[in-house]
Design a protein that fits this description.
Elements lengths: L8 E4 L8 E4 L8 E5 L21 H4 L10 H12 L4 E3 L1 H4 L5 H7 L3 H6 L3 E4 L20 E7 L4 E7 L4 H5 L17 H8 L3 E4 L4 E4 L3 E4 L4 E3 L12 H11 L15 H11 L3 E2 L2 E2 L3 H4 L3 E2 L28 E2 L4 H6 L2 E3 L2 E9 L9 E11 L1 E8 L5 E5 L10 E2 L5 H4 L4 E5 L1 E3 L8 E9 L6 E11 H4 L10 E6 L1
Parallel strand pairs: 3-4, 3-5, 5-8, 25-26
Antiparallel strand pairs: 1-2, 1-4, 6-7, 8-9, 9-10, 10-11, 12-13, 14-15, 16-23, 17-18, 18-26, 19-20, 19-22, 21-25, 22-24, 24-25
Length: 479
Amino acid sequence: MQAPRLPTRVIDIGSDNSEIKLVQTSSGDTGRYTTLSWRWPERDKKSPRPRWETIRASLPLKKINMLWDSIPKVHQDAITVTRQAGLRYIWIDSHCIVQDDDAEKKREFPKMATIYSNSYLTISASWIKDINDGCFALRTPPKYAKFQYTIKAKRATDTVRAFLEPYELASWWDQNIPLQGEILSTRGWAFQERYLSIRTLYFAKAQMYFECCKFMRGENGFAVGGRLFGIHDKKRTNKYWNYLIESYSSRTLTYETDRLVAIEGLAVKFNEKLNDRYLAGIWHGDLLRDLLWSRNSSTPRKWKDPKRKFVAPSWSWAAVGCEFDTSPYTGVLAKYPTKTIAKLLDSNVTLESSDQQYGHVTKGYLKLRAPWIPVAPSRLDSNEGLLLKTRTGKRLRYGASLDYKMKWSEIRPLRMYATPIVNIEGKLSPQAEYPSILVTPVPGKKNRFSRIGNIFLDKKSLGDEAPDQGAIRRTFTLV
């Protein structure tokens, strides 16, 4: 198999006694290399950069020699594993991307799709809490018990060794797959690094795992065919994208503004198949239905903070910064006949870099035409759902799920409108029902609205205001 093209820079580790150095590659350079997936230490943006990060001032020196003692233990161990694998090059983000060069970051982040996909092996430092921990966790070796067994058909006898497993792993074997107990499994940037990689060796706190497109294996005998969210051997569809980002939404980021940037590589990889427009984490091809995402009811909402830095337009799941479901009505929409009753007239997202399709979003809008139903807040229920009533004072059957935590004093004066997106035509209940979003006017902006939640409307509660009973339709802009 032909060796892939090398990334813009790689670390040349040579043999055991060789000096290591940073290499600037040219367009024709090819070779096998490893990548490292690891947890960056948290650091305030105002504090000095650690000396192991590559910055413009240190780049020339690193191209001559990277002093071993100046490299964190986790990087040293990854280099050792790469040498043991018989490879010459390794790519580590903190060394191979100039960290104080924003223009370079914007060029390199979209390349994560090819960097990790072309890597011969990704080394995942899954358990580490600190960069000085290294890949190899100190652990108590399991105590093995020997058992003899006989294969009657072959008249052969042999010995097998067994050891005790933690209860949660032994009882639910699939808990091995997401590596839920590992530090790296909570981190946002590490999400795409796992699923873009062809092969990964996980250094977990209790054992090592190996995962590829065909199977996953553990030291403890755990084995399963296929892989979790395998994007290399599965059809990359909009539905599959939604499964991925639901899982991603539970991960944490040091800087919330990286919410979309940290999955740029995944978006690039998906669009090789989708060939679609990417709008702040949502694909244009099924955008209307994907507006029906909802904050996960089992996770706490964040307080609505006007000082919070802009991440995405209010209609994008990336705006809320917490765990969500891509559509709380997914099962319903799949089970019953449905009809989209809203229309998308126009859409646009502006990025920091005008020549890119992915990256930091600065603003965005959707121009919609949809049924327009004025509603008013009634009260907050015990689960912090918002109970609503129509303009005639009739209480709606279902409560709204708000995107943010808000005080009643903030909610009460808001003008609110429910805009149905889909009509469920099957008999889910005695009445037809309408998955909808809840919007409110943007102060000082004519015909501009922001999403604040979602709600399930039903025909019986709406009466004459139901979409098929004379509800007015309005063209408006969602920002």
